[in-house]
């Protein structure tokens, strides 16, 4: 976190940090560090446990997790928390209603036109992303993937087949360089903001730690494809190696006049709220 906050200070970047209730409860001082630097504090649900994905939890449980984390973050920060990003971007259609009923106004979990080739968790459900709008939109109350007139604004993450996230940046640095030209072109054409997503732990070198490969699938073939290969790929450029890749990306947009702002500021500036 100090590394990340430092790079944001150097490049005059303000962003949204989405905290899980679990992490915020363990490290409330980190939430305060982020606020002190002028970033937005958003909710990342209760935890990253696979069973806490918003695409598998029943509606009432989704609401419980949202309300719990919002209150915890508001108690720590003393500020209203209105923005949400789902752990592993796993949202279900009814997550829109759950967010509205718990007082959230912004979601940024839909990666429109992302296609995971079924390698990520919840791969089949994520097919809904293929048809979601690319520009920010007011969602339907019935489906977070569709336009409607609910009070919830969706700010989709940048994606085109591959998601624009830290993992892609680390595993396929070459592809990410191509991606940024594509997203920059799209911004010039349509004004869509570039939305990038990275986890602070991607800058931590964990190579000395034993890595246990979780078994999320009982079928040996899918276990090999989904868990083993995925786990091996996920550690590439993890740690200090990720920092120069990130800086290069930031400089690309900085030199082209982009402003780096929290999702809440974007929605306010665009009068979407
Ligand atoms: Zn996360």
From TrEMBL:
Query: Known Pfam families for this protein?
Result: Polysacc_deac_1
**What biological processes does GO assign it?**
carbohydrate metabolic process
Transmembrane segments in this chain: where?
Answer: none
Q: Which residues form the NodB homology domain?
A: 1-261
| Signal sequence interval, chain numbering | none
Give GO MF terms, alphabetically: hydrolase activity, acting on carbon-nitrogen (but not peptide) bonds
The protein's matches in PROSITE patterns, at most eight in alphabetical order, are given as:
NODB (PS51677)
Checking InterPro entries in the record gives: Glyco_hydro/deAcase_b/a-brl, NODB_dom
Its recorded name reads Polysaccharide deacetylase
């Amino acid at each position: 976190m100090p590394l990340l906050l430092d790079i944001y200070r150097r490049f005059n970047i303000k962003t949204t940090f989405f905290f899980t209730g679990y992490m915020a409860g363990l490290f409330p001082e980190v939430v305060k560090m982020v606020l002190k630097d002028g970033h937005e504090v958003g909710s990342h649900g209760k935890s990253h446990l696979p069973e806490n994905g918003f695409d598998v939890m029943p509606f009432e449980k989704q609401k419980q997790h949202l309300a719990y984390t919002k209150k915890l973050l508001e108690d720590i920060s003393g500020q209203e928390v209105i923005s949400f990003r789902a752990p592993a971007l796993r949202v279900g259609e009814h997550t829109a209603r759950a967010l509205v009923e718990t007082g959230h106004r912004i979601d940024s979990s839909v990666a429109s036109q992302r296609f995971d080739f079924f390698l990520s968790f919840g791969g089949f459900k994520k097919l809904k992303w293929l048809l979601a709008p690319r520009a920010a939109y007011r969602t339907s109350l019935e489906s977070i993937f569709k336009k409607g007139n609910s009070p919830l604004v969706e700010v989709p993450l940048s994606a085109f087949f591959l998601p624009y996230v830290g993992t892609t940046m680390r595993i396929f640095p070459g592809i990410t360089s191509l991606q940024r030209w594509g997203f920059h072109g799209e911004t010039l054409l349509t004004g869509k903001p570039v939305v990038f997503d990275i986890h602070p732990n991607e800058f931590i070198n964990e190579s000395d730690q034993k890595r246990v490969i979780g078994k999320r699938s009982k079928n040996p073939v899918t276990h090999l494809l989904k868990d083993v290969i995925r786990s091996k790929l996920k550690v590439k450029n993890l740690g200090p190696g990720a920092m120069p890749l990130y800086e290069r990306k930031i400089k690309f947009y900085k030199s082209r006049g982009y402003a780096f702002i929290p999702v809440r500021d974007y929605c306010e500036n665009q009068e979407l709220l």
